[in-house]
Design goal:
Elements: E1 3-8, E2 11-16, E3 24-25, E4 30-34, E5 40-59, E6 62-66, E7 69-71, E8 76-90, E9 98-108
Antiparallel strand pairs: 1-2, 2-5, 3-4, 4-9, 5-8, 5-9, 6-7, 6-8
């Protein structure tokens, strides 16, 4: 438990955190990342990642974060690097927020 690695074309997605972070749930068809498990969602590629777009539902006012800044659902994040790491924060005062990921789109340089 605690580390999950998924290989997709050109990119490895590594999820670290607690026992439940990174699990896929058929109820809701989503991949859940839990704030209180200090998660890291890292994309590492052999190509330059130009941007990442993650569609997710917020639970308990949880939000994806990048370098401490909130990343809205379906927002395109400019990367221009071979690696990028997201975490989960909160837009409110709760400490048990979740991001329930339903889709990830990565755009690479040619």
């Amino acid at each position: 438990f605690g580390t999950i690695v998924a290989d997709v074309e050109n990119t490895t997605i590594t999820v670290t955190g607690g026992q439940n972070t990174g699990k896929y749930y058929t109820s809701g068809n989503n991949w859940r990342i839990y704030q209180n498990e200090s998660p890291a969602l890292t994309f590492t590629s052999s190509k330059t990642i130009l941007s990442v777009n993650i569609e997710y539902a917020s639970q308990n006012t949880g939000t994806l974060t990048l370098n401490g800044a909130n990343v809205s659902n379906a927002a395109t994040v400019e990367v221009n690097a071979n690696t990028v790491t997201f975490s989960v924060g909160n837009t409110g005062t709760a400490t048990n927020g979740q991001a329930r990921i339903t889709s990830i789109t990565i755009v690479y340089a040619d």
